[in-house]
Specification:
binds zinc ion; alpha/beta; 8-stranded parallel barrel; globular; TIM Barrel
């Protein structure tokens, strides 16, 4: 079936008070793991490609992801994660993406609105929907490292003004989560009151970045197989469930699949030193990622919605 737009999937999610996963992919195994988990649980999904993924996999990766998305038996949207420029968004729209994110959250409000609006006009003309971001998450991302003290939580009145003026379709908000596998000591927090306040002013689907669970059992498996992932911590699944109840419709997940992939590959290499068939090394990684996606979908509440 044709790919769905981000709005088609996310407006239903916001209306139905469930969350949809946006999983980052860079290769065939990740894409298959995500789609197989979504098909078996009947979940709609967004497959996200970052600019780093586009640089890594080029047109071959994009063509493969678009084709696999169209062949899936559940609604799939192919989304540009953290587009850094108008040009980058237009390039993805031309390639067939059905959703783009323009991230000018590090600019001043006026520039963020103007640049987002420019992308919205082109995207909407092409039948593509748009994510924007205001506020600033802490953590590490491909194109930006934000120290915790520079992170800025999204202000509700600013969010309302931004969506009115930019015309964006869904909004990433900074609510205490951060990118990467080290989300802070103890139990990283989510500002639930802030989500409720923003959701009360905005009917749009809200987006949560940096919300990986970083499950302890996966980190332990990775480290037991020779990995060195220290001080790893993620967002508790109860926090994700509550955020979804209050208006979060799109939940980005990258770190959890990276950890699962690496843990499984390390285990094979450690336990089977004679193995040199790439399929026997990457296959178990795909299996473990599929399980992790299924766990996430249960937490988000999207299982059975497609
Ligand atoms: Zn992000």
């Amino acid at each position: 079936m044709p790919l769905a737009t981000g709005s088609e999937i996310l407006e239903a999610a916001r209306a139905g008070s469930y969350g949809v996963g946006a999983f980052n992919t860079n290769d065939m195994e990740i894409t298959q793991a995500v789609l197989e988990a979504c098909e078996s649980s009947r979940s709609p999904v967004l497959l996200s490609l970052s600019e780093g993924a586009l640089k890594y996999g080029g047109k071959a990766l994009v063509d493969m992801v678009l084709s696999m998305g169209r062949d899936a038996s559940v609604p799939v949207c192919v989304h540009l994660d953290h587009g850094s420029s108008f040009e980058s968004c237009v390039r993805c729209i031309r390639m067939g993406f059905t959703s783009v994110m323009i991230d000018k959250s590090h600019e001043d409000e006026e520039t963020n609105i103007a640049e987002t609006k420019r992308v919205v006009e082109v995207a909407h003309a092409a039948g593509v929907t748009v994510e924007a971001e205001i506020g600033r998450l802490g953590g590490v991302e491909e194109h930006v490292v934000v120290a915790e003290e520079d992170a800025i939580l999204t202000k509700p009145d600013e969010a309302e003004r931004f969506m009115e003026q930019s015309g964006a379709d869904y909004l990433a908000i900074a609510i205490g989560t951060s990118h990467g596998a080290n989300k802070g000591k103890g139990r990283p927090y989510i500002d639930h009151k802030r989500i409720r306040e923003i959701a009360a002013l905005l009917p749009h689907p809200l987006v949560m970045h940096g919300a990986s669970g970083v499950p302890t059992y996966l980190v332990e498996r990775l480290n037991a197989a020779g990995g060195q992932l220290k001080d790893a911590s993620g967002i508790h699944e109860d926090d994700v469930r509550e955020a979804v109840k209050h208006g979060i419709a799109k939940i980005n997940t990258d770190t959890d699949l990276r950890i699962a992939f690496t843990a499984a590959v390390r285990e094979v290499l450690l336990e089977k030193p004679k193995e040199f068939d790439p399929r026997k090394i990457l296959g178990p990684a795909r299996d473990l990622m599929r399980e992790v996606v299924l766990e996430r979908l249960q937490v988000f509440g999207s299982a059975g919605k497609a």
